Structures are given as structure tokens and as C-alpha cells.
Amino acid sequence: MLAVMEWEMADSVPHLTKHACQVWLADIRDLQPWHIQLLNPEEKERVQSFRKEQDRAHFIIGCVLSRFVLAAQLNMAPHEVPIDRTCPACRKAHGRPQLPDRSFQWSISHSGERVLVAFTAGTPVGVDVEWLDDSYALDIRQMANEVLAEEEKYHLFQASPQEQRRVFYTYWTRKEAILKATGKGLQISPLHVIVSAPHQTPRLLYLKGDPGCLNRAAMYPLEMDNGYVASLALLGEAGKQIERYDARMLLRKGFGWKDDYRKMEQ
Ligand SMILES: [Zn+2]
Question: How many angstroms does the Cα of residue 91 sit away from the middle of ligand 1?
């Protein structure tokens, strides 16, 4: 259950102002059969390529949330939102999703049973969520060597063994959120992004090759329910208002669209 008080149960999609970032939290168990009707042919084809049920659900929920929230801003039907995924390198449809006019920016992350989508009216944004799956042993030393800078490793190993998984993944989500916001993603090693320690306010401390980024980057913690950690990064003027919405009602009821899409199913 999404029993987190800070996430407001939305019963409509609010207007996204210049001064705000909307973060929507979803649970893949709220996937509905009619959701697939919101997707464009390219997205439907992509759905077919996933072998695992959970991967399919992650992708569909990410598309559906993107389309509902953008449709409300653009005043159009969710399936008509012109989402473009053309990869700048190879022209295939696996690039970062965007609108042709770049009027809105959004970032999608999923892990375990959660999907997060963060939207802005143009400010570069990155969000990352990780499930603290404790069903397997984590080689924390090896992972730390691949991801964490020396001072970060120091904080990690200061934590008790039971807390290390959470500490590691808090670092991880902070770094990922920054990398996603810069649009550089996997081109930069997480070793070259240094962030504040998990018990401190989230903050970017160093980004290799881009010292100016420190002044533009703002980071925010996202309070998740037990077993998850998540971080949000924005690159732009400071002081954005972060709005957190629980997407359960949107996904179940479709805010006026459900009957239309159910008809398309038949
Ligand atoms: Zn490509």
C-alpha cells in the first residue's frame, strides 16, 4: 500500500505552473486493461518486446502517467500527446521521451512495484527510485567501488550492516537523479558525481566537467514507504515548489477518460 502521508491523493490533474515540479507516484498493481489504449503504435510495439510482466507494467504505467498529466496541460486526449522518443544517435525510438516543442520536461523511474514520473514546465528534471530488495545478498563493497567516491564510501561503511543497503541506494538515487536531469545519463560514471551523505540534505557537491552545474542543481528527497528510496533533481533557478501526487485514483478511474478507452478495447 502507498501509505505515505506526503503524497496527496489527486482526484484531477492540477495545472503545472512554471514554479512547480509535479511528482506522481504509482503502484504497478493499479495497471488496468484499458491503459494500453492510451499508447501510440510505437509504444504498443515496445510493450510486446518485454518478456517480464513487471517490465511491461513499468513501461505502460510510465506512458499512461506521462500521457494523462501532459494531456491535461496541453488540453488534448491522452493518446494524442505527441511524445517523441527518437534517439539522437541512431534515430530509433528508444531515446528520452519529449515533446516536439520541449515545452514540458519529464523523467520516469521504476523499481519493484513503484513508478515515479516527475514533470516540469521546461526545467530539466531527473527522478530515480530504487527498491531495497533484501531477498538477495548485495556485494556492497564491489558496488561501492563502482559507484561511490572515497568520502562517500567512508559514510557508507560508517553505517551498520543493516543500514548499508539503504545508504548505498540513497547515494545511487541522488546520483542517478542528477545524471538524468543533465541528460547525460550513462555517459558519465556515477564515480564522477559526488553528492551529500544520505543523512544530510540532498545536494550535488561535484560534477566532473561541469562546475557551473553546482549552482543550477537543486535536489529534493522524496519520502517513500518502507523498502524504497527516491531522489529528485532539477537544473534551473532554485526554489521550485515540489508537488507530490499519488496516482492511484488517476490510474483506476482515468479522470473522465476511462469509458472512452474501454470502448476502444472492444
Ligand atoms: Zn539509439
Answer: 6
